[in-house]
Design brief:
- This is IclR family transcriptional regulator.
- It holds the Pfam family HTH_IclR.
- Helix 6 runs antiparallel to helix 10.
- The protein is built from ten helices and eight strands.
- The chain has helices at 3-6, 10-25, 30-37, 41-53, 68-79, 84-98, 140-146, 151-161, 174-187, 228-251, and strands spanning 57-60, 63-66, 101-108, 111-119, 133-134, 190-193, 200-209, 212-222.
- It has 253 residues and is α+β, with helices and mostly antiparallel strands.
- A six-stranded antiparallel beta sheet has the order 5-4-3-8-7-6, sandwiched between helices. A two-stranded antiparallel sheet has the order 1-2.
């Protein structure tokens, strides 16, 4: 592959930045977008007009927002997941059994990507949604997947994304993280003790196939409910069972 073929196109990169920024802001006009992207208003206007004409954006007055065409793309991506029906059914059951928020995630580009989320009758709303990307080191889902990766892959992820502290409890140095990952492998599940969000704890178990990590299942809830025997034994057992069911069904799907 030649150097020219691997050189990124700045215009395409900027278009992606436009979509990301509109998603984060919930919509924006030309002036606001140009300020956020640190580009000229004429450049921002050309990008918005192109994406609008291609039907990736809609417009309300002077405000541009992401359109339903992106939803169509997302649905097509979801349909590529062979075991999606199994994942959704088991995560719904996990949420119902625990009463908390249950999630399934996998890895892409060195980040945790949420594929399914369900809320039990006591489940609290969290910042994650389907498609949300998070760091590996600060989430139970991420740590339990990272625990089954090669040390080379772990180093690649750390080199690319670093180990930023999301809270004062986040494990943010490599030595401590590697020790944490060893403990996770020994017990078979990971915990997030307010390491990603204040007041929120999480338990996650891996979904493996022939020693390769496919993803992970988790349960999250307020720290006041996620404690004692429930947090140390009951929830890890339930989450691990859910992950095993997904794992077995994925193997034969």
């Amino acid at each position: 592959m030649t150097q020219e073929s691997t050189k990124p196109l700045s215009s395409v990169g900027l278009a992606c930045d436009v979509l990301d920024t509109l998603h984060e802001l919930g919509g924006a006009g030309v002036t606001e977008l140009a300020k956020e992207l640190n580009c000229s208003k004429s450049t921002a206007h050309r990008q918005l007009t192109t994406l609008y004409n291609k039907e990736y954006l809609v417009k309300d007055g002077s405000q541009y927002q992401i359109g339903y065409k992106c939803l169509d793309l997302a649905t097509r991506v979801r349909d590529q997941i062979n075991n999606y029906d199994v994942i959704s059914e088991e995560i719904e059951s996990l949420a119902e059994e625990t009463g908390e928020t249950a999630q399934f995630a996998t890895e892409e580009h060195g980040r945790v990507v949420y594929l399914y989320k369900a809320r039990g009758n006591q489940g609290v709303q969290t910042s994650s949604n389907v498609g949300t990307r998070e760091f590996f080191h600060s989430t139970a889902l991420g740590k339990v997947m990272m625990a089954y990766m090669s040390e080379e892959r772990i180093d690649e992820i750390i080199d690319r994304h670093g180990l930023p502290a999301k809270t004062e409890k986040t494990v943010s140095d490599r030595e401590s993280l590697m020790q944490d990952l060893e403990e996770i492998r020994e017990r078979g599940y990971a915990i997030d003790d307010e390491e990603n969000v204040h007041g929120l704890r999480c338990v996650a178990a891996p979904v493996l196939q022939d020693d390769d990590i496919l993803g992970a299942a988790s349960v999250s809830g307020p720290s006041r409910r996620m404690e004692g025997e429930r947090f140390d034994e009951e929830l890890p057992n339930i989450v691990t069972r859910t992950a095993n069911v997904i794992e077995l069904n994925s193997k034969f799907s």
